[in-house]
Amino acid sequence: MRDALMNALKTVNDPELHRDLVSLGMIERAEMDGGLAHVKVNLTTPACPLKGKIESDVRAAVLAVPGVQDVRVTFGATVRAAAQPALPGVKHVVLVGSGKGGVGKSSVAVNLAASLARDGARVGLLDADVYGPSVAHMMGQPAARITANEDRKMLPLEAHGVKFLSMANLSPAGQALVWRGPMLHSAIQQFIKDAAWGELDYLIVDLPPGTGDVQLSLTQTVQVTGAVIVTTPQDVALIDAARAVDMFRKASVPVLGVVENMSYFVAPDTGHTYDIFGRGGSRKLGSEYPLLGEIPLDVEVRQDADQGAPAVLAHPDSAAAQALAGVARTLAGQISVRTLHSTLAELPDQLTVV
């Protein structure tokens, strides 16, 4: 009977990877108990954006097997590392950048990390905005101090299920850092290689705005899975976002997609939508860079950040939080697709991705 179930499951494709679940090695269990079929699918990310479709497709395929009266579908998840993992124990490093300040890049980075962790991924968050670190405050730990283990490696702090490091937790509050390039490079090296990150599925890196030393140091220090560009819709922001895209292109870092922040505003009293900054402008960056999502302008996102609670956790039912969660899941899907393609490129004769 297991063979019949597996043959049925060979007809079910992963909607993003466009290959069947069996050849992808995603079927962990397929067995019968009387007339009840038990199927466990091991997803490529716990933040799978199309989990519901996979479940319905599996149910339909298995119910067509003679003798099956009902189907119970359960899920696990194993994030697969690229052919060349980013760091020991870290499967993917994702840079979150912008061409200019003031577009909500850090808010997006914090909420992406919190959303992925809530969905069950092991997530780290590095605040690489050395001159203007804000992650510690947004994570509710502005006064915490970073310590070291017996191997003299920095121990990341943890909040909301996310491990994080920020210069704000190393330097006195309000103190300006007046550093030149070599000192920045040294600091980034320590944050990446001299920290006990442990086992992570995703390390989200909040970059400083622009195209400067920190960006170059990171791309030269670690194998980066890809970058996310955060922008607002107006032309002034898009001009700078295009520069950020060009920088990553020159550094051979794939752009995983664009997040259009402050895309529109919904008046709470009337429900009317206002395109304050001209919604949809991020599409001008080009069709080759997928739009991961449009985040509405929402006062709760700012309030939650000030209070140290990511909006996806503090107000998960709000339009902004749902949009941010959608971006996180779409991003996870993009990473899964790229990982499969890179693995197949390394192993052209292998039929099953393990």
UniProtKB/TrEMBL annotation:
<dbReference type="GO" id="GO:0016887">
    <property type="term" value="F:ATP hydrolysis activity"/>
</dbReference>
<dbReference type="InterPro" id="IPR027417">
    <property type="entry name" value="P-loop_NTPase"/>
</dbReference>
<keyword id="KW-0408">Iron</keyword>
<keyword id="KW-0067">ATP-binding</keyword>
<feature type="domain" description="MIP18 family-like">
    <location>
        <begin position="2"/>
        <end position="74"/>
    </location>
</feature>
<comment type="subunit">
    <text>Homodimer.</text>
</comment>
<dbReference type="GO" id="GO:0046872">
    <property type="term" value="F:metal ion binding"/>
</dbReference>
<dbReference type="GO" id="GO:0140663">
    <property type="term" value="F:ATP-dependent FeS chaperone activity"/>
</dbReference>
<dbReference type="GO" id="GO:0051539">
    <property type="term" value="F:4 iron, 4 sulfur cluster binding"/>
</dbReference>
<feature type="binding site">
    <location>
        <begin position="99"/>
        <end position="106"/>
    </location>
    <ligand>
        <name>ATP</name>
    </ligand>
</feature>
<dbReference type="InterPro" id="IPR019591">
    <property type="entry name" value="Mrp/NBP35_ATP-bd"/>
</dbReference>
<comment type="function">
    <text>Binds and transfers iron-sulfur (Fe-S) clusters to target apoproteins. Can hydrolyze ATP.</text>
</comment>
<keyword id="KW-0479">Metal-binding</keyword>
<keyword id="KW-0547">Nucleotide-binding</keyword>
<dbReference type="InterPro" id="IPR034904">
    <property type="entry name" value="FSCA_dom_sf"/>
</dbReference>
<dbReference type="InterPro" id="IPR044304">
    <property type="entry name" value="NUBPL-like"/>
</dbReference>
<comment type="similarity">
    <text>In the N-terminal section; belongs to the MIP18 family.</text>
</comment>
<dbReference type="InterPro" id="IPR033756">
    <property type="entry name" value="YlxH/NBP35"/>
</dbReference>
<keyword id="KW-0378">Hydrolase</keyword>
<dbReference type="GO" id="GO:0016226">
    <property type="term" value="P:iron-sulfur cluster assembly"/>
</dbReference>
<comment type="similarity">
    <text>In the C-terminal section; belongs to the Mrp/NBP35 ATP-binding proteins family.</text>
</comment>
<dbReference type="Pfam" id="PF10609">
    <property type="entry name" value="ParA"/>
</dbReference>
<dbReference type="InterPro" id="IPR002744">
    <property type="entry name" value="MIP18-like"/>
</dbReference>
<dbReference type="GO" id="GO:0005524">
    <property type="term" value="F:ATP binding"/>
</dbReference>
<keyword id="KW-0411">Iron-sulfur</keyword>
<protein>
    <recommendedName>
        <fullName>Iron-sulfur cluster carrier protein</fullName>
    </recommendedName>
</protein>
<dbReference type="Pfam" id="PF01883">
    <property type="entry name" value="FeS_assembly_P"/>
</dbReference>
<dbReference type="InterPro" id="IPR000808">
    <property type="entry name" value="Mrp-like_CS"/>
</dbReference>
